[in-house]
Protein backbone atom coordinates (compact mmCIF):
# COMPACT_ATOMS: atom_id res chain seq x y z
CA UNK A 1 0.00 0.00 0.00
CA UNK A 2 3.02 2.30 -0.12
CA UNK A 3 2.18 3.31 -3.67
CA UNK A 4 -1.35 4.22 -2.54
CA UNK A 5 -0.11 6.44 0.28
CA UNK A 6 2.19 8.16 -2.20
CA UNK A 7 -0.70 9.25 -4.42
CA UNK A 8 -2.06 12.81 -4.21
CA UNK A 9 -5.14 13.32 -2.08
CA UNK A 10 -7.35 13.89 -5.14
CA UNK A 11 -6.18 10.66 -6.77
CA UNK A 12 -6.69 8.69 -3.56
CA UNK A 13 -10.22 10.03 -3.14
CA UNK A 14 -11.06 9.22 -6.76
CA UNK A 15 -9.59 5.72 -6.57
CA UNK A 16 -11.22 5.04 -3.20
CA UNK A 17 -14.64 6.13 -4.45
CA UNK A 18 -14.24 3.95 -7.52
CA UNK A 19 -13.15 0.91 -5.54
CA UNK A 20 -15.79 1.38 -2.86
CA UNK A 21 -18.48 1.59 -5.52
CA UNK A 22 -17.31 -1.17 -7.86
CA UNK A 23 -15.78 -3.85 -5.64
CA UNK A 24 -18.92 -4.39 -3.51
CA UNK A 25 -21.06 -4.33 -6.66
CA UNK A 26 -18.98 -6.99 -8.37
CA UNK A 27 -18.72 -9.06 -5.21
CA UNK A 28 -22.45 -8.78 -4.61
CA UNK A 29 -23.19 -9.83 -8.18
CA UNK A 30 -21.04 -12.94 -7.87
CA UNK A 31 -22.18 -13.74 -4.34
CA UNK A 32 -25.85 -13.15 -5.12
CA UNK A 33 -25.70 -15.42 -8.16
CA UNK A 34 -23.96 -18.06 -6.10
CA UNK A 35 -26.41 -17.67 -3.22
CA UNK A 36 -29.33 -17.78 -5.63
CA UNK A 37 -28.21 -20.99 -7.32
CA UNK A 38 -27.18 -22.53 -3.98
CA UNK A 39 -30.54 -21.64 -2.46
CA UNK A 40 -32.38 -23.19 -5.39
CA UNK A 41 -30.23 -26.32 -5.17
CA UNK A 42 -30.83 -26.52 -1.42
CA UNK A 43 -34.58 -26.11 -1.84
CA UNK A 44 -34.56 -28.67 -4.63
CA UNK A 45 -32.62 -31.11 -2.46
CA UNK A 46 -34.97 -30.63 0.50
CA UNK A 47 -37.98 -31.11 -1.74
CA UNK A 48 -36.38 -34.22 -3.27
CA UNK A 49 -35.67 -35.73 0.14
CA UNK A 50 -39.24 -35.08 1.22
CA UNK A 51 -40.57 -36.70 -1.94
CA UNK A 52 -38.25 -39.66 -1.54
CA UNK A 53 -39.45 -40.19 2.03
CA UNK A 54 -43.06 -40.19 0.84
CA UNK A 55 -42.24 -42.62 -1.98
CA UNK A 56 -40.41 -44.93 0.40
CA UNK A 57 -43.26 -44.69 2.90
CA UNK A 58 -45.93 -45.58 0.33
CA UNK A 59 -43.89 -48.50 -1.00
CA UNK A 60 -43.16 -49.75 2.51
CA UNK A 61 -46.85 -49.55 3.37
CA UNK A 62 -47.64 -51.59 0.24
CA UNK A 63 -45.20 -54.30 1.31
CA UNK A 64 -46.63 -54.37 4.84
CA UNK A 65 -50.20 -54.59 3.56
CA UNK A 66 -49.18 -57.38 1.15
CA UNK A 67 -47.57 -59.33 3.97
CA UNK A 68 -50.69 -58.85 6.10
CA UNK A 69 -52.89 -60.17 3.27
CA UNK A 70 -50.76 -63.30 2.83
CA UNK A 71 -50.61 -63.90 6.58
CA UNK A 72 -54.41 -63.67 6.77
CA UNK A 73 -54.78 -66.34 4.07
CA UNK A 74 -52.22 -68.71 5.56
CA UNK A 75 -53.41 -68.45 9.16
CA UNK A 76 -57.17 -69.06 8.78
CA UNK A 77 -56.59 -72.52 7.14
CA UNK A 78 -59.47 -72.11 4.72
CA UNK A 79 -57.17 -71.44 1.77
CA UNK A 80 -55.21 -74.64 2.45
CA UNK A 81 -58.40 -76.71 2.52
CA UNK A 82 -59.76 -75.05 -0.62
CA UNK A 83 -56.59 -75.88 -2.56
CA UNK A 84 -56.92 -79.64 -1.94
CA UNK A 85 -60.72 -80.02 -2.02
CA UNK A 86 -62.90 -80.38 -5.04
CA UNK A 87 -63.94 -77.07 -6.51
CA UNK A 88 -67.64 -76.41 -6.09
CA UNK A 89 -69.69 -73.30 -6.53
CA UNK A 90 -69.92 -72.79 -2.79
CA UNK A 91 -66.23 -73.40 -2.36
CA UNK A 92 -65.39 -70.89 -5.06
CA UNK A 93 -67.77 -68.32 -3.62
CA UNK A 94 -66.40 -68.66 -0.09
CA UNK A 95 -62.80 -68.70 -1.27
CA UNK A 96 -63.18 -65.59 -3.38
CA UNK A 97 -64.93 -63.86 -0.50
CA UNK A 98 -62.02 -64.73 1.76
CA UNK A 99 -59.58 -63.73 -0.96
CA UNK A 100 -61.10 -60.29 -1.50
CA UNK A 101 -61.32 -59.65 2.23
CA UNK A 102 -57.61 -60.37 2.55
CA UNK A 103 -56.60 -58.01 -0.26
CA UNK A 104 -58.79 -55.03 0.68
CA UNK A 105 -55.81 -52.75 1.43
CA UNK A 106 -53.77 -53.76 -1.62
CA UNK A 107 -56.56 -54.37 -4.11
CA UNK A 108 -55.73 -51.37 -6.32
CA UNK A 109 -51.96 -51.93 -6.12
CA UNK A 110 -51.57 -55.73 -6.55
CA UNK A 111 -53.36 -58.89 -7.79
CA UNK A 112 -53.48 -61.87 -5.44
CA UNK A 113 -53.58 -65.44 -6.83
CA UNK A 114 -53.58 -68.89 -5.21
CA UNK A 115 -51.65 -71.77 -6.81
CA UNK A 116 -51.79 -75.37 -5.68
CA UNK A 117 -48.70 -77.39 -4.79
CA UNK A 118 -48.20 -78.31 -8.46
CA UNK A 119 -48.07 -74.68 -9.58
CA UNK A 120 -51.57 -74.61 -11.16
CA UNK A 121 -53.64 -71.44 -10.80
CA UNK A 122 -56.76 -72.04 -8.68
CA UNK A 123 -58.04 -68.64 -7.57
CA UNK A 124 -57.11 -65.06 -8.53
CA UNK A 125 -58.29 -61.43 -8.22
CA UNK A 126 -56.81 -60.68 -11.64
CA UNK A 127 -59.48 -60.35 -14.30
CA UNK A 128 -57.06 -61.51 -17.03
CA UNK A 129 -54.26 -63.64 -15.62
CA UNK A 130 -51.28 -64.07 -17.91
CA UNK A 131 -50.17 -67.55 -16.81
CA UNK A 132 -52.16 -70.54 -15.54
CA UNK A 133 -49.07 -72.46 -14.45
CA UNK A 134 -45.90 -71.53 -12.56
CA UNK A 135 -42.83 -73.75 -12.26
CA UNK A 136 -42.29 -75.05 -8.75
CA UNK A 137 -38.67 -76.16 -9.12
CA UNK A 138 -37.19 -72.80 -10.06
CA UNK A 139 -38.05 -69.11 -9.96
CA UNK A 140 -40.58 -67.55 -7.66
CA UNK A 141 -42.25 -70.66 -6.20
CA UNK A 142 -38.93 -72.32 -5.46
CA UNK A 143 -37.84 -69.24 -3.46
CA UNK A 144 -41.18 -69.21 -1.64
CA UNK A 145 -40.85 -72.91 -0.80
CA UNK A 146 -37.35 -72.35 0.58
CA UNK A 147 -38.48 -69.44 2.76
CA UNK A 148 -40.03 -69.93 6.24
CA UNK A 149 -43.74 -70.64 6.28
CA UNK A 150 -45.82 -67.47 5.94
CA UNK A 151 -42.81 -65.38 4.91
CA UNK A 152 -43.31 -63.30 1.77
CA UNK A 153 -40.59 -63.50 -0.89
CA UNK A 154 -40.21 -60.97 -3.71
CA UNK A 155 -38.89 -61.76 -7.17
CA UNK A 156 -38.34 -59.92 -10.44
CA UNK A 157 -40.51 -61.58 -13.01
CA UNK A 158 -37.90 -61.84 -15.78
CA UNK A 159 -34.42 -60.21 -15.99
CA UNK A 160 -34.93 -59.80 -19.72
CA UNK A 161 -38.44 -58.44 -19.55
CA UNK A 162 -38.36 -54.70 -20.23
CA UNK A 163 -39.38 -52.93 -17.05
CA UNK A 164 -40.72 -50.14 -19.26
CA UNK A 165 -43.42 -52.49 -20.54
CA UNK A 166 -46.89 -52.71 -19.05
CA UNK A 167 -46.64 -56.32 -17.83
CA UNK A 168 -45.92 -57.69 -14.36
CA UNK A 169 -42.76 -56.07 -13.00
CA UNK A 170 -42.49 -57.86 -9.67
CA UNK A 171 -44.06 -60.79 -7.86
CA UNK A 172 -44.28 -61.80 -4.25
CA UNK A 173 -45.09 -65.26 -2.96
CA UNK A 174 -45.42 -67.22 0.27
CA UNK A 175 -46.01 -70.89 0.97
CA UNK A 176 -49.42 -72.11 2.25
CA UNK A 177 -49.14 -75.12 4.53
CA UNK A 178 -51.53 -77.33 6.44
CA UNK A 179 -51.49 -77.45 10.25
CA UNK A 180 -49.40 -80.63 9.92
CA UNK A 181 -46.78 -78.76 7.87
CA UNK A 182 -47.64 -80.16 4.44
CA UNK A 183 -47.40 -77.66 1.58
CA UNK A 184 -50.82 -77.07 0.13
CA UNK A 185 -49.97 -74.34 -2.38
CA UNK A 186 -48.79 -70.79 -2.79
CA UNK A 187 -50.16 -67.25 -2.47
CA UNK A 188 -48.74 -65.06 -5.25
CA UNK A 189 -48.94 -61.25 -5.55
CA UNK A 190 -48.46 -59.64 -8.97
CA UNK A 191 -47.34 -55.98 -9.23
CA UNK A 192 -47.76 -54.39 -12.65
CA UNK A 193 -46.59 -51.04 -14.00
CA UNK A 194 -50.07 -49.62 -13.61
CA UNK A 195 -50.08 -50.74 -9.97
CA UNK A 196 -46.82 -48.87 -9.28
CA UNK A 197 -47.96 -45.84 -11.27
CA UNK A 198 -51.14 -45.62 -9.18
CA UNK A 199 -49.20 -46.09 -5.95
CA UNK A 200 -46.64 -43.37 -6.70
CA UNK A 201 -48.83 -40.90 -8.61
CA UNK A 202 -48.34 -37.29 -7.47
CA UNK A 203 -45.43 -38.07 -5.15
CA UNK A 204 -42.77 -36.61 -7.45
CA UNK A 205 -42.48 -34.30 -10.44
CA UNK A 206 -43.13 -35.64 -13.92
CA UNK A 207 -39.81 -34.08 -14.99
CA UNK A 208 -37.91 -36.25 -12.50
CA UNK A 209 -37.02 -39.92 -12.90
CA UNK A 210 -37.68 -42.56 -10.24
CA UNK A 211 -35.94 -45.94 -10.17
CA UNK A 212 -36.80 -48.78 -7.79
CA UNK A 213 -34.08 -51.42 -7.50
CA UNK A 214 -34.09 -54.75 -5.73
CA UNK A 215 -31.49 -55.78 -3.17
CA UNK A 216 -29.14 -56.83 -6.02
CA UNK A 217 -29.34 -53.32 -7.56
CA UNK A 218 -31.38 -54.66 -10.49
CA UNK A 219 -34.18 -52.39 -11.75
CA UNK A 220 -37.72 -53.21 -10.74
CA UNK A 221 -39.54 -50.04 -11.82
CA UNK A 222 -38.69 -46.95 -13.89
CA UNK A 223 -41.07 -43.98 -13.93
CA UNK A 224 -40.20 -43.19 -17.57
CA UNK A 225 -41.79 -45.75 -19.86
CA UNK A 226 -39.69 -44.60 -22.82
CA UNK A 227 -36.44 -45.60 -21.07
CA UNK A 228 -35.04 -48.92 -22.12
CA UNK A 229 -32.42 -51.14 -20.57
CA UNK A 230 -29.56 -48.98 -21.90
CA UNK A 231 -30.84 -45.67 -20.52
CA UNK A 232 -31.72 -47.20 -17.18
CA UNK A 233 -28.34 -48.89 -16.96
CA UNK A 234 -26.60 -45.56 -17.53
CA UNK A 235 -28.59 -43.98 -14.70
CA UNK A 236 -27.68 -46.82 -12.34
CA UNK A 237 -24.00 -46.65 -13.33
CA UNK A 238 -23.94 -42.89 -12.77
CA UNK A 239 -25.55 -43.33 -9.35
CA UNK A 240 -23.05 -46.01 -8.32
CA UNK A 241 -20.13 -43.77 -9.29
CA UNK A 242 -21.39 -40.98 -7.03
CA UNK A 243 -23.05 -43.10 -4.35
CA UNK A 244 -21.18 -41.42 -1.47
CA UNK A 245 -22.07 -37.89 -2.62
CA UNK A 246 -25.54 -38.13 -4.12
CA UNK A 247 -26.53 -34.52 -3.50
CA UNK A 248 -23.81 -32.89 -5.62
CA UNK A 249 -24.64 -30.47 -8.40
CA UNK A 250 -23.35 -32.75 -11.17
CA UNK A 251 -25.04 -35.94 -9.89
CA UNK A 252 -28.55 -34.57 -9.22
CA UNK A 253 -29.97 -37.70 -7.59
CA UNK A 254 -31.08 -38.86 -4.13
CA UNK A 255 -31.41 -42.37 -2.80
CA UNK A 256 -32.94 -44.24 0.10
CA UNK A 257 -33.07 -47.94 1.05
CA UNK A 258 -36.00 -49.92 2.42
CA UNK A 259 -34.49 -51.95 5.25
CA UNK A 260 -36.89 -54.90 5.51
CA UNK A 261 -36.46 -56.28 1.95
CA UNK A 262 -33.51 -54.20 0.72
CA UNK A 263 -35.24 -52.22 -2.04
CA UNK A 264 -33.48 -49.06 -3.24
CA UNK A 265 -35.24 -45.86 -4.34
CA UNK A 266 -33.31 -43.53 -6.66
CA UNK A 267 -34.80 -40.14 -7.54
CA UNK A 268 -33.04 -38.29 -10.38
CA UNK A 269 -34.03 -34.61 -10.30
CA UNK A 270 -33.74 -31.95 -12.96
CA UNK A 271 -31.34 -29.10 -12.17
CA UNK A 272 -33.28 -26.23 -10.46
CA UNK A 273 -31.73 -23.73 -12.87
CA UNK A 274 -30.31 -24.56 -16.29
CA UNK A 275 -26.83 -23.71 -17.53
CA UNK A 276 -28.15 -21.31 -20.25
CA UNK A 277 -30.10 -19.44 -17.56
CA UNK A 278 -26.96 -19.11 -15.45
CA UNK A 279 -25.05 -17.86 -18.49
CA UNK A 280 -27.77 -15.31 -19.23
CA UNK A 281 -27.68 -14.08 -15.64
CA UNK A 282 -23.91 -13.70 -15.86
CA UNK A 283 -24.19 -11.72 -19.10
CA UNK A 284 -26.79 -9.38 -17.61
CA UNK A 285 -24.71 -8.94 -14.47
CA UNK A 286 -21.61 -8.10 -16.53
CA UNK A 287 -23.52 -5.55 -18.60
CA UNK A 288 -24.89 -3.89 -15.48
CA UNK A 289 -21.40 -3.86 -13.97
CA UNK A 290 -19.96 -2.08 -17.04
CA UNK A 291 -22.75 0.48 -16.93
CA UNK A 292 -22.13 0.96 -13.22
CA UNK A 293 -18.41 1.42 -13.91
CA UNK A 294 -19.09 4.27 -16.31
CA UNK A 295 -21.53 5.84 -13.89
CA UNK A 296 -19.04 5.48 -11.04
CA UNK A 297 -16.31 7.15 -13.11
CA UNK A 298 -18.49 10.21 -13.69
CA UNK A 299 -19.81 10.45 -10.14
CA UNK A 300 -16.41 9.72 -8.55
CA UNK A 301 -14.80 12.47 -10.62
CA UNK A 302 -17.41 15.02 -9.59
CA UNK A 303 -17.30 13.91 -5.96
CA UNK A 304 -13.50 14.01 -5.90
CA UNK A 305 -13.49 17.55 -7.22
CA UNK A 306 -16.08 18.69 -4.68
CA UNK A 307 -14.02 17.22 -1.83
CA UNK A 308 -10.47 18.02 -2.92
CA UNK A 309 -11.00 21.73 -3.67
CA UNK A 310 -12.12 22.81 -0.18
CA UNK A 311 -9.55 20.49 1.40
CA UNK A 312 -6.83 22.11 -0.72
CA UNK A 313 -7.96 25.58 0.38
CA UNK A 314 -7.93 24.48 4.01
CA UNK A 315 -4.45 23.03 3.57
CA UNK A 316 -3.12 26.33 2.25
CA UNK A 317 -4.83 28.25 5.06
CA UNK A 318 -3.30 25.93 7.68
CA UNK A 319 0.12 26.56 6.18
CA UNK A 320 -0.43 30.28 6.76
CA UNK A 321 -1.53 29.63 10.34
CA UNK A 322 1.65 27.62 10.94
CA UNK A 323 3.57 30.72 9.90
CA UNK A 324 1.76 32.69 12.62
CA UNK A 325 -0.87 34.46 10.54
CA UNK A 326 -4.06 34.10 12.62
CA UNK A 327 -5.96 36.65 10.54
CA UNK A 328 -6.42 34.13 7.72
CA UNK A 329 -10.04 33.50 6.64
CA UNK A 330 -11.31 30.86 4.20
CA UNK A 331 -14.44 31.86 2.28
CA UNK A 332 -17.05 29.17 1.65
CA UNK A 333 -20.64 28.97 0.43
CA UNK A 334 -21.11 25.28 1.18
CA UNK A 335 -23.63 24.06 3.74
CA UNK A 336 -22.43 20.47 4.00
CA UNK A 337 -19.83 18.89 6.29
CA UNK A 338 -16.91 20.48 4.44
CA UNK A 339 -18.61 23.86 4.73
CA UNK A 340 -19.04 23.33 8.46
CA UNK A 341 -15.43 22.18 8.66
CA UNK A 342 -14.31 25.40 6.96
CA UNK A 343 -16.44 27.48 9.33
CA UNK A 344 -14.99 25.53 12.25
CA UNK A 345 -11.48 26.32 11.00
CA UNK A 346 -12.34 30.01 10.75
CA UNK A 347 -13.86 29.89 14.24
CA UNK A 348 -10.78 28.07 15.53
CA UNK A 349 -8.44 30.75 14.20
CA UNK A 350 -10.62 33.47 15.73
CA UNK A 351 -10.77 31.65 19.07
CA UNK A 352 -7.03 30.98 19.00
CA UNK A 353 -6.34 34.61 18.29
CA UNK A 354 -8.67 35.69 21.11
CA UNK A 355 -7.14 33.12 23.45
CA UNK A 356 -3.62 34.34 22.80
CA UNK A 357 -4.71 37.92 23.36
CA UNK A 358 -6.49 36.91 26.57
CA UNK A 359 -3.46 34.90 27.68
CA UNK A 360 -1.22 37.91 27.16
CA UNK A 361 -3.65 40.08 29.11
CA UNK A 362 -3.86 37.52 31.93
CA UNK A 363 -0.09 37.35 32.14
CA UNK A 364 -0.03 41.11 32.31
CA UNK A 365 -2.67 41.14 35.07
CA UNK A 366 -0.86 38.41 36.98
CA UNK A 367 2.39 40.32 36.78
CA UNK A 368 0.66 43.43 38.10
CA UNK A 369 -0.89 41.43 40.95
CA UNK A 370 2.46 39.88 41.77
CA UNK A 371 4.08 43.31 41.77
CA UNK A 372 1.46 44.61 44.18
CA UNK A 373 1.99 41.55 46.35
CA UNK A 374 5.70 42.23 46.46
CA UNK A 375 4.99 45.84 47.37
CA UNK A 376 2.86 44.70 50.34
CA UNK A 377 5.63 42.38 51.52
CA UNK A 378 8.39 44.98 51.94
CA UNK A 379 10.79 43.94 54.60
CA UNK A 380 8.60 41.01 55.87
CA UNK A 381 11.41 39.56 58.01
CA UNK A 382 11.62 42.83 59.89
CA UNK A 383 7.88 42.57 60.73
CA UNK A 384 8.25 38.93 61.77
CA UNK A 385 11.18 39.74 64.08
CA UNK A 386 9.24 42.67 65.55
CA UNK A 387 6.24 40.40 66.32
CA UNK A 388 8.57 37.89 67.93
CA UNK A 389 9.97 40.67 70.18
CA UNK A 390 6.40 41.70 71.14
CA UNK A 391 5.52 38.10 72.02
CA UNK A 392 8.47 37.67 74.37
CA UNK A 393 7.89 41.07 75.96
CA UNK A 394 4.24 40.10 76.64
CA UNK A 395 5.36 36.87 78.28
CA UNK A 396 7.89 38.71 80.43
CA UNK A 397 5.25 41.22 81.55
CA UNK A 398 2.67 38.44 81.94
CA UNK A 399 0.19 39.67 79.29
CA UNK A 400 -0.85 36.33 77.66
CA UNK A 401 -3.38 37.81 75.22
CA UNK A 402 -0.71 39.91 73.52
CA UNK A 403 1.59 36.88 73.40
CA UNK A 404 -1.12 34.79 71.73
CA UNK A 405 -1.85 37.59 69.26
CA UNK A 406 1.78 38.01 68.37
CA UNK A 407 2.44 34.27 68.07
CA UNK A 408 -0.53 33.53 65.78
CA UNK A 409 0.02 36.67 63.73
CA UNK A 410 3.59 35.54 63.18
CA UNK A 411 2.33 32.15 61.96
CA UNK A 412 -0.03 33.85 59.49
CA UNK A 413 2.69 36.20 58.32
CA UNK A 414 5.17 33.35 57.84
CA UNK A 415 2.65 31.40 55.71
CA UNK A 416 1.74 34.48 53.65
CA UNK A 417 5.35 35.35 52.77
CA UNK A 418 6.20 31.74 51.87
CA UNK A 419 7.59 31.36 48.36
CA UNK A 420 5.17 28.52 47.55
CA UNK A 421 2.03 29.72 45.70
CA UNK A 422 0.16 26.48 46.52
CA UNK A 423 -0.17 24.67 49.83
CA UNK A 424 -2.24 21.70 51.02
CA UNK A 425 -5.70 22.16 52.43
CA UNK A 426 -4.33 20.89 55.74
CA UNK A 427 -1.75 23.71 55.86
CA UNK A 428 -4.41 26.27 54.95
CA UNK A 429 -6.58 25.05 57.83
CA UNK A 430 -3.62 25.46 60.19
CA UNK A 431 -3.40 29.10 59.08
CA UNK A 432 -7.15 29.48 59.69
CA UNK A 433 -6.71 28.01 63.18
CA UNK A 434 -4.15 30.73 63.97
CA UNK A 435 -6.52 33.38 62.63
CA UNK A 436 -9.43 31.98 64.69
CA UNK A 437 -7.33 32.09 67.88
CA UNK A 438 -6.64 35.78 67.21
CA UNK A 439 -10.33 36.54 66.61
CA UNK A 440 -11.45 34.63 69.70
CA UNK A 441 -9.44 37.08 71.83
CA UNK A 442 -11.46 39.88 70.28
CA UNK A 443 -14.82 38.06 70.29
CA UNK A 444 -14.43 36.00 73.46
CA UNK A 445 -17.12 33.31 73.66
CA UNK A 446 -19.23 34.80 70.89
CA UNK A 447 -18.81 32.09 68.22
CA UNK A 448 -18.00 28.42 67.74
CA UNK A 449 -15.67 27.27 64.94
CA UNK A 450 -15.64 23.74 63.43
CA UNK A 451 -14.30 21.96 60.34
CA UNK A 452 -15.73 18.95 58.48
CA UNK A 453 -12.98 17.95 56.08
CA UNK A 454 -12.60 14.29 54.93
CA UNK A 455 -9.08 13.00 55.53
CA UNK A 456 -8.59 12.13 51.84
CA UNK A 457 -9.15 15.78 50.86
CA UNK A 458 -6.62 17.34 53.24
CA UNK A 459 -3.79 16.67 50.76
CA UNK A 460 -5.46 18.62 47.95
CA UNK A 461 -3.45 21.62 46.76
CA UNK A 462 -5.02 25.10 46.85
CA UNK A 463 -3.64 28.67 46.53
CA UNK A 464 -2.33 29.89 49.88
CA UNK A 465 -4.38 32.36 51.96
CA UNK A 466 -7.51 31.37 49.98
CA UNK A 467 -9.87 30.75 52.91
CA UNK A 468 -8.80 33.50 55.34
CA UNK A 469 -10.80 36.28 53.57
CA UNK A 470 -13.93 34.06 53.65
CA UNK A 471 -13.56 33.33 57.39
CA UNK A 472 -12.83 36.99 58.05
CA UNK A 473 -15.99 38.00 56.17
CA UNK A 474 -18.04 35.47 58.19
CA UNK A 475 -16.71 36.81 61.53
CA UNK A 476 -16.66 40.54 60.85
CA UNK A 477 -19.83 40.87 58.74
CA UNK A 478 -21.82 37.67 59.24
CA UNK A 479 -21.64 37.42 63.06
CA UNK A 480 -21.96 41.10 63.73
CA UNK A 481 -24.30 41.55 66.71
CA UNK A 482 -24.45 37.78 67.46
CA UNK A 483 -23.64 36.37 70.89
CA UNK A 484 -23.60 32.65 69.99
CA UNK A 485 -22.42 32.45 66.41
CA UNK A 486 -21.33 29.37 64.49
CA UNK A 487 -18.77 29.06 61.68
CA UNK A 488 -18.03 25.82 59.83
CA UNK A 489 -15.65 24.94 57.01
CA UNK A 490 -16.54 21.76 55.10
CA UNK A 491 -15.39 20.24 51.82
CA UNK A 492 -16.44 17.52 49.39
CA UNK A 493 -15.34 16.18 46.03
CA UNK A 494 -17.46 15.42 42.99
CA UNK A 495 -15.43 13.69 40.29
CA UNK A 496 -12.44 16.02 39.73
CA UNK A 497 -13.95 19.14 41.33
CA UNK A 498 -13.12 20.17 44.91
CA UNK A 499 -15.75 22.25 46.71
CA UNK A 500 -14.85 24.15 49.90
CA UNK A 501 -17.62 25.98 51.76
CA UNK A 502 -17.53 28.48 54.64
CA UNK A 503 -20.89 28.86 56.36
CA UNK A 504 -22.15 30.93 59.27
CA UNK A 505 -25.48 31.33 61.04
CA UNK A 506 -25.35 35.10 61.22
CA UNK A 507 -27.74 37.70 59.92
CA UNK A 508 -27.17 36.75 56.32
CA UNK A 509 -25.38 38.56 53.52
CA UNK A 510 -27.20 41.30 51.68
CA UNK A 511 -28.65 40.25 48.32
CA UNK A 512 -26.74 43.00 46.55
CA UNK A 513 -23.52 41.49 47.89
CA UNK A 514 -24.66 37.98 46.81
CA UNK A 515 -25.32 39.23 43.28
CA UNK A 516 -21.90 40.89 43.21
CA UNK A 517 -20.12 37.65 44.16
CA UNK A 518 -22.16 35.54 41.73
CA UNK A 519 -21.75 37.93 38.79
CA UNK A 520 -19.51 36.72 35.90
CA UNK A 521 -17.04 39.59 36.25
CA UNK A 522 -17.35 41.41 39.61
CA UNK A 523 -15.58 44.77 39.87
CA UNK A 524 -13.45 45.86 42.79
CA UNK A 525 -15.67 46.78 45.76
CA UNK A 526 -14.68 49.01 48.62
CA UNK A 527 -14.39 47.13 51.90
CA UNK A 528 -14.30 43.69 50.29
CA UNK A 529 -10.85 43.60 48.76
CA UNK A 530 -10.15 40.14 50.22
CA UNK A 531 -13.16 38.50 48.54
CA UNK A 532 -12.35 40.28 45.27
CA UNK A 533 -8.76 38.98 45.39
CA UNK A 534 -9.99 35.40 45.99
CA UNK A 535 -12.29 35.62 42.94
CA UNK A 536 -9.46 36.95 40.78
CA UNK A 537 -6.96 34.34 42.00
CA UNK A 538 -9.36 31.48 41.14
CA UNK A 539 -10.01 32.87 37.65
CA UNK A 540 -6.34 33.56 36.96
CA UNK A 541 -5.22 30.11 38.08
CA UNK A 542 -8.11 27.92 36.91
CA UNK A 543 -10.17 29.85 34.35
CA UNK A 544 -13.81 30.90 34.10
CA UNK A 545 -15.31 27.47 34.84
CA UNK A 546 -14.19 27.66 38.49
CA UNK A 547 -14.77 30.39 41.04
CA UNK A 548 -16.86 31.48 44.03
CA UNK A 549 -20.62 31.33 44.68
CA UNK A 550 -22.63 32.78 47.57
CA UNK A 551 -25.98 31.80 49.09
CA UNK A 552 -27.66 33.85 51.82
CA UNK A 553 -30.85 33.75 53.87
CA UNK A 554 -32.07 34.96 57.23
CA UNK A 555 -30.46 31.88 58.79
CA UNK A 556 -26.95 32.64 57.58
CA UNK A 557 -24.55 32.72 54.64
CA UNK A 558 -22.62 30.06 52.73
CA UNK A 559 -19.75 30.89 50.37
CA UNK A 560 -18.50 28.00 48.22
CA UNK A 561 -15.25 27.80 46.26
CA UNK A 562 -14.89 25.38 43.31
CA UNK A 563 -11.47 24.42 41.98
CA UNK A 564 -9.74 21.35 40.51
CA UNK A 565 -9.11 18.51 42.98
CA UNK A 566 -5.37 17.96 42.57
CA UNK A 567 -2.71 16.76 44.93
CA UNK A 568 0.94 17.60 45.33
CA UNK A 569 3.00 16.61 42.31
CA UNK A 570 0.07 16.97 39.91
CA UNK A 571 -0.26 19.87 37.50
CA UNK A 572 -2.09 22.49 39.55
UniProtKB/TrEMBL annotation:
Which SUPFAM superfamilies does the record cross-reference, listed alphabetically?
Answer: ATPase domain of HSP90 chaperone/DNA topoisomerase II/histidine kinase, HAMP domain-like
Keywords, alphabetical? Kinase, Phosphoprotein, Transferase
Checking InterPro entries in the record gives: Bact_2-comp_sensor_kinase (IPR050640), HAMP_dom (IPR003660), HATPase_C_sf (IPR036890), HATPase_dom (IPR003594), Sig_transdc_His_kin_internal (IPR010559)
User: What PANTHER family is this protein classified in?
Assistant: SENSOR HISTIDINE KINASE YPDA
Q: What is this protein called?
A: Sensor histidine kinase
Give all residue intervals belonging to the HAMP domain. Answer: 305-357
Q: Name one Pfam family in it.
A: His_kinase
Q: Name one GO molecular function term.
A: phosphorelay sensor kinase activity
- Where is it found, in Gene Ontology cellular component terms? membrane
Family matches, as CDD domains = HAMP
Localization, per the record, is:
Membrane
Amino acid sequence: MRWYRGLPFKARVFLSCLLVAMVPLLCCSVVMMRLFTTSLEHQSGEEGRRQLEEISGHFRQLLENSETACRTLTEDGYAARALISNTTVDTQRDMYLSLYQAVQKVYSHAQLSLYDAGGRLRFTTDSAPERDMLPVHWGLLRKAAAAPSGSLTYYRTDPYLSYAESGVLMQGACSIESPEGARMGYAVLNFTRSNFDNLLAGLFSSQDTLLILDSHMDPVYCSRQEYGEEETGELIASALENWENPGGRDQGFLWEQEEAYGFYFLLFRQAPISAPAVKTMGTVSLALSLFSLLLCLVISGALTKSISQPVSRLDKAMAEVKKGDLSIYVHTNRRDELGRLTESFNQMTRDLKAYLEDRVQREKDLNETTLKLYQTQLNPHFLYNTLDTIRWSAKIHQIPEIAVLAENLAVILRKSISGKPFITLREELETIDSYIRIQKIRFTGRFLYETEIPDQLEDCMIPKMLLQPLVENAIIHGLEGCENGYICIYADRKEDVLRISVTDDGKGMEQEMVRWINSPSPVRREGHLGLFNVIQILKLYYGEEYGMRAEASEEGTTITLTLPARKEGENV
